[in-house]
Amino acid sequence: MDTANDASFAYQAVYRYLVELIETSPSAGERQLPSLRQLARRLGVSVSTTKYAYALLEDEGRVQARPKRGYFTQAVAAPLLSEGSPDLLDQVFANARQPGMLALSSDAPAMLLSLENPLLMMERELARQYPRALTPLYLPFGEPELRAALAARYTQSTHRYWQAEQVYIGSDLHSVLDLSLSALALRGTLALVESPCSWAVLRQLQAANIRVIEMPLGAGGRFDLPAFQALLEREPIRLVVLSSSVNVPQGGVMPAQDKQQICRWLAERDIWLFENDTYGELCFEPPAARYRDFADPQKLLVFSTFDKVIGAEAPYAYVLCRGQGPQLQRVFLERGFRLSPTRQKAIAKLLTSGRIDQHLLMLRAALRERMTRMEALLETHGEWHVVEPHGGASFWLEARRPVDMGHVFERLLAQRVVIAPGQLFSLHGNWPHHLRLSYTLDWSKDIAQAVQLLAQAIRQSP
């Protein structure tokens, strides 16, 4: 193990080592793991570090401690689709977390290249500069330095600009969307979304008792504009949710002229536009036009997260909104997020120093390389249509014949492979013959074999 790593974070490396040790075990049954002292000697860390890593695995149910005998892996069989929760999304997540499962369903671009180590190094440096006793207990709208950095990053001109007080930071995407829908009095209304649509967005709209109309995207990433306009004229739509650059998860890019026309129609009808910027900077050939370049700034809310680019150590989400400031301030004050000011300052430093921009260049290149590698594997099979995505971290595949991907998902569980069926990306059961296939995977594993198993499962499904 690299002894240059700070000891306070060594447990994370030990944890990752143990997870890989468990998942690569040739046996599906239980087996004994190294003792605390054996593991400490093997990895060059303290016994307390190995004990903490094992404690995390115990909490997750991956290992079991037995008095005077040591630690053993848990023999856990992958749950079948018919067991436990009937919700397909819950089943996908539950199985993806099982030891030894290969999740082709992942959605984590930063797995390829993260900024977690620079972030943690920056945080430790800032912790020395800003003693904890001098830090406020909580900042309900987010750390001022990070709010200012985000406002500056999103400002493009004297007409398209943001101020720090128009930025709100929360613990995760669920929280900031929930608060925003409440502040803008959009609960229980009618929303129009692109389809397929992010499952996280769909779940949040559903939780807010919002009725959802899904507008399908064509293979090239475009809407049927006359049909879109007809929907706006016919239905009392109060909210539209659209991806900023690359459509998530479809992978297409809406032409700038289409976005401009859509924004005109929304402005004419005083409809809120929520722009999903989660993958906004992961378009392979930026800069792509964003909806916010054309939208009414008083009816625009942009939302995103840090983890897709930085990694899991930056789980926070944020919104930018110029309209309804007092209402947003009220709900964020009531919620009272208690987020680490030092971690937020560290993210701000990565933004203002240009480190994230350098990282994005490398991350987009890495994503494109993995996309090309996965595309070559997919083209060796004839079970699906392959459309090359314009960005992001996954392919949106359509089977060449009508195959229920929910059944394919169930078949693959026995092969210890997890996919994300297309039904996850619709509230109305649309896209049953599609799946999202990630290419941000651990390529040290046999991905070609997993793709082969997927092709076989599709061929064998009725």
Automatic annotation (TrEMBL):
<dbReference type="GO" id="GO:0003677">
    <property type="term" value="F:DNA binding"/>
</dbReference>
<dbReference type="InterPro" id="IPR015421">
    <property type="entry name" value="PyrdxlP-dep_Trfase_major"/>
</dbReference>
<keyword id="KW-0663">Pyridoxal phosphate</keyword>
<dbReference type="InterPro" id="IPR000524">
    <property type="entry name" value="Tscrpt_reg_HTH_GntR"/>
</dbReference>
<feature type="domain" description="HTH gntR-type">
    <location>
        <begin position="8"/>
        <end position="76"/>
    </location>
</feature>
<dbReference type="InterPro" id="IPR036390">
    <property type="entry name" value="WH_DNA-bd_sf"/>
</dbReference>
<keyword id="KW-0805">Transcription regulation</keyword>
<dbReference type="InterPro" id="IPR015424">
    <property type="entry name" value="PyrdxlP-dep_Trfase"/>
</dbReference>
<dbReference type="InterPro" id="IPR051446">
    <property type="entry name" value="HTH_trans_reg/aminotransferase"/>
</dbReference>
<dbReference type="Pfam" id="PF00392">
    <property type="entry name" value="GntR"/>
</dbReference>
<keyword id="KW-0804">Transcription</keyword>
<dbReference type="GO" id="GO:0008483">
    <property type="term" value="F:transaminase activity"/>
</dbReference>
<keyword id="KW-0032">Aminotransferase</keyword>
<dbReference type="GO" id="GO:0003700">
    <property type="term" value="F:DNA-binding transcription factor activity"/>
</dbReference>
<dbReference type="Pfam" id="PF00155">
    <property type="entry name" value="Aminotran_1_2"/>
</dbReference>
<dbReference type="InterPro" id="IPR004839">
    <property type="entry name" value="Aminotransferase_I/II_large"/>
</dbReference>
<keyword id="KW-0808">Transferase</keyword>
<protein>
    <submittedName>
        <fullName>PLP-dependent aminotransferase family protein</fullName>
    </submittedName>
</protein>
<dbReference type="InterPro" id="IPR036388">
    <property type="entry name" value="WH-like_DNA-bd_sf"/>
</dbReference>
<keyword id="KW-0238">DNA-binding</keyword>
<dbReference type="InterPro" id="IPR015422">
    <property type="entry name" value="PyrdxlP-dep_Trfase_small"/>
</dbReference>
<dbReference type="GO" id="GO:0030170">
    <property type="term" value="F:pyridoxal phosphate binding"/>
</dbReference>
<comment type="similarity">
    <text>In the C-terminal section; belongs to the class-I pyridoxal-phosphate-dependent aminotransferase family.</text>
</comment>
